[in-house]
Structures are given as C-alpha cells and as structure tokens.
Amino acid sequence: MLKIRFKKLSAGAKAPSYSHPGDAGMDLYANESVAIKKGEATRIPTGIAIEISDGYVGLVWDKSSLSTNHGLKTLGGVIDAGYRGEIIVGLINLGKEDYIVEKHQKIAQLLIQKIERAELEGTDELSESKRGMGGFGSTGKK
Predict the structure, then answer these.
(1) Is this model's pTM higher than 0.90 or not?
(2) Residue 14 domain-assigned (yes or no)
(3) Alpha carbons 78 and 56: distance in angstroms, whole number
C-alpha cells in the first residue's frame, strides 16, 4: 500500500482521512472558518502539507454534498509530488446564498493517482480520427 506522509502546520489542523473503507478520496478539512459570499471564490487553508511519492499526483475534487446542496465547487486542484507547502483548497460559491465553512468541516476530497509522463513531439500534421475536430457538444444528445 502506498504511504502518504503528512505534516500538521498548525496544532489545530485536522489530518486528512478516509470516511469509509474503499473510498477513493480522502477528506480535506478547513483549518479555519471562512464565509464565502454567493458568486465569490476564496482559498481555504487546511493546515496540512503532504509528501506524495514521485510518479503520483494528488487531485482535489468536490465534496458531493457541498456541490449538490450548496453550489460550492473546487478550483484548480493538482498537487504535484514535489510540492511540500500547505494544501489550500480554492472554492467558488455558485449557489444562491452565502455559505459559511466552519473550522474542521470537510471541504474537498483528495485522490492520489499514478501518473504517466508523456514525451511531446511537435508535428505539422495529426492523424485522422472519426471524431476529428468536433468538440463542445458535437456528438449531440441522443
């Protein structure tokens, strides 16, 4: 099993944790209370730094209850293996009301995934495909 080392950057920080066996994402917790006005984005500190092994990445994703029930969506969210600073979660409030995040509340989930590094090669032509250059809904609704 992959081990992820973490460090509390403040005494009151809550360590990331999996809520249930088999969960893909570990919960990240707010290290302070923050008010997010509707339509605004903010950064919420977790008070935690982690050490991800080379060949892996941490991806920050929404908590479904916050996004579905309150319109809070995560912003950004790639934690590279070499990063050792505090995990700070960007949240935007797309809901209809202001929202207050309480200290130690679950604010996002962190998935650890293996990565594949690609070798980039410039070219003047790309191979043909059935889809071609179609995007942004080009496959339609059926």
Answers:
(1) no
(2) no
(3) 11
Q: Residue 109: which residues within 8 A CB-CB, separation 6 or more?
A: 24, 25, 26, 27, 28, 60, 61, 62, 63
Question: CATH number, domain at 68?
Answer: 2.70.40.10
**DSSP conformational letter for 38:** T
Question: Which one-letter amino acid corresponds to residue 90?
Answer: G
pLDDT tens per residue across span 21-64: 999 999 999 999 999 999 999 999 999 999 999 999 999 999 99
Residue 131 included in any domain: no
Q: Is 122 a member of any domain?
A: no
Q: How far is CA 63 from CA 5, 67, 138, 139, in A?
A: 23, 6, 30, 29
The DSSP element (H or E) to which 31 belongs, if any, is: none
Distance CA 64, CA 44 (A): 17
> For the residues of 101-141, what is the DSSP string, one character each?
EPTT-EEEEEEEEE--PPPP---S-----SSTT--SSTT--
In a domain, 63, yes or no: yes
